[in-house]
Amino acid sequence: MFTGIIQAVGKISKAEPRKQDVHMTIDAGGMDLCDVVLGDSIAVNGVCLTVVELTEKSFMVDVSKETLDCTIGFEKNSAVNLEKALRLSDRLGGHLVSGHVDGVGEVVKFAAEGDCYLLKIKAPHALAKYIATKGSVTISGVSLTVNRVESDTFSINLIPHTLEMTNLKHLQAGAKINLEVDMMARYVERLTSYQEQNFQD
């Protein structure tokens, strides 16, 4: 489990194909790895991955074909948002994030508005129903608040601190990004559909 509060921006320094999967070496940037052990989970661009090897300043992960098929942002030399798994004693500064990407969205607009940036994203139609005004959404691992929703497109206001601390500063129109919707929205849908089904029965 994660919070969506990015701890560092790292870089994929190596990407070695292994049959249909890929073995990756990720430079940890400024993230402290002293408390990380083999088997720990680290979110990379919002994707929960397991540490299989470790050095002082980098870690290695195996990324399956299934993960590669449904996510984006794992090309060699790519800048990646990093977050270590949440501990029970940590503050929950963002929102509860599973690290299981729901789909890939497309940037419609990324433009300066004063000191901030307006980010507009078109979500896959099947995910749009889970995205609500003032609700939470995770974009490439970053916990953000939705400002406006229009059909399948939603808008977010990015403050300078968020741009400085994440790789979102590199976005441009047409870019693809990993999306994870608020898990509470999925539970509400499941509860509602279950109750409706039982009522009909």
TrEMBL record:
Domain spans labelled Lumazine-binding: 1-95, 96-192
Coiled-coil regions, chain positions: none
Pfam families for this protein: Lum_binding
Matches recorded under CDD domains: Riboflavin_synthase_like (cd00402)
GO molecular function, one term: riboflavin synthase activity
Role: Catalyzes the dismutation of two molecules of 6,7-dimethyl-8-ribityllumazine, resulting in the formation of riboflavin and 5-amino-6-(D-ribitylamino)uracil.
Protein name: Riboflavin synthase
Taxon lineage: Bacteria, Pseudomonadati, Pseudomonadota, Betaproteobacteria, Nitrosomonadales
